[in-house]
Amino acid sequence: MKTLSLVATLSSICFSANVAAKTHFSDFSVSYLNGNDYEVGDNKRQVVTLEHFAVTSWGDSFTFVDRLESSNGDKEIYGEFSPRFKITDFENSPVKALYVATTIEYGNFSSHDGFGSSLTNYLYGVGAGINVPYFDYVNVNMYYRNNEHGDNNYQTTITWGLPIGPLYYDGFMDYATSRDNSVSQMNLTSQLKYDVAPHLNLDSKLYVGIEYVYWLDKFGIDGVNENNVNLLVKYHF
């Protein structure tokens, strides 16, 4: 009942905000990844990701959906919806703004041998936009995690975007505390990419590059560490 109440509350907030919302910026992209060093399950996977980001008068929102296909036939869909509702702005301060931060995580896994599983987790807490020299953005969110499987815990998420000459470096770091059935974990995922659109006379960005994943104790499994480099192609509409 608590989970249903939370969903209803978040839906009400989102609906009320969207009625009067003014969109200042939005971006939609699709990307393709191919890597050979995944941990937990088959090591070789292809991933197609849809992403949408928007800055509005009420705050901002980021959502993505991954479609993962492994070489052994395993398939997975994983996504997150993360709206943040602005509390206040600051001027001439290292902190640009404070937010109520929320996230819904959802996923469905189907293995080649018929095994399946799913999850839905709800995260809520506070967030901040930070002014850091040379960075386009730095965000820090601190959550309480309401997990469908196992007991609840806490998570800190940092996201950033940094232009480096003709390259762009962005990504996130998640740190989640231990639970009754898992140890603490840290996932550092970042992309280093180059926009080839000007060379192809395209109006929208077309990035090529790599995504690097450094995941300590993946999924909270003690000693399972992932070092994974993926080839990346990402197109912005």
Structure commentary:
The protein is mainly β and 237 residues long. It has a single domain, classed as Beta Barrel (Outer membrane phospholipase (ompla), Chain C), CATH 2.40.230.20. It has one helix at 2-19; strands at 23-35, 45-56, 59-70, 75-89, 95-110, 116-130, 137-146, 153-164, 167-176, 185-195, 206-216, 226-236. The protein has a twelve-stranded antiparallel barrel. The radius of gyration is 18 Å and the shape is globular. The relative contact order is 0.14.
How would you spell out the order of helices and strands?
A: HEEEEEEEEEEEE
Provide the structure class: mainly beta
Shape: globular
Mean pLDDT equals 92
Number of strands: 12
Number of helices: 1
- The CATH homology group name: Nucleoside-specific channel-forming protein, Tsx-like
End-to-end separation: 40 Å
> How much strand?
over 45%
Low-confidence stretches: 1-11, 13-19
**Fraction in helix:** under 10%
For the largest sheet, list the strands in their spatial order. 1-2-3-4-5-6-7-8-9-10-11-12
Radius of gyration: 18 Å
The number of domains is: 1
Give the biggest sheet.
12 strands, antiparallel, barrel
What is the CATH architecture term?
Answer: Beta Barrel
CATH class group:
Mainly Beta
Question: Which key terms come to mind for this protein?
Answer:
Outer membrane phospholipase (ompla), Chain C, 237 residues, 12 strands, mainly beta, globular, disordered N terminus
